[in-house]
Write a structure and sequence with these properties.
Elements lengths: L1 H31 L7 H10 L1 E3 L3 E4 L5 E10 L2 H9 L1 H12 L4 H6 L1 H15 L5 E11 L1
Antiparallel strand pairs: 1-3, 2-3, 3-4
Helix pairs in contact: 4-6
Length: 142
């Protein structure tokens, strides 16, 4: 009976160790999950810190209508945000060139395409960091 009792103790200790290890592993992976709600406040704070608001731009479109538009450009670092501010004239140039090739209908169906094009074009001139997102925050068609 001593062998059976010793075997039971060993099995119970092994099961307890495995359970504790499993719980610890679960807790580690749970806290490392980027979609965890605890990280949401930090990521929005990061977005605010790395966001650059463009001035409103008014320009004509390819179909002789006009648009007044403004963007919020999200960068990956404070250095990139600062560089984007210094490259304001290039940013305006990129926006005007992209906007003048569009028509009024493009703004109703393809605003996301414009945001992606602007992001790509800005990243071509950036040297310190990059643009991660471009959001349209104001738009008026005339």
């Amino acid at each position: 009976m001593t062998k059976v009792s010793r075997l039971m103790k060993t099995m119970m200790i092994s099961v307890a160790i495995l359970a504790i290890g499993g719980i610890a592993a679960f807790m580690i992976f749970w806290n490392m999950d980027p979609n965890n709600h605890k990280g949401s406040a930090a990521s929005i704070k990061k977005i605010e810190d790395y966001a650059y608001e463009t001035p409103e731009i008014t320009t004509d479109l390819n179909d002789d209508s006009f648009v007044r538009i403004q963007f919020q450009v999200i960068t990956d670092s404070k250095e990139a945000k600062e560089e984007l501010g210094n490259r304001d004239f290039q940013l305006k140039n990129i926006l005007i060139k992209e906007l003048t090739t569009m028509e009024e209908e493009d703004f109703k169906t393809g605003l996301t395409n414009l945001e992606e094009k602007v992001k790509t074009k800005i990243n071509e001139v950036m040297t310190s960091g990059k643009v991660t997102d471009v959001y349209t925050i104001n738009k008026i068609l005339q």
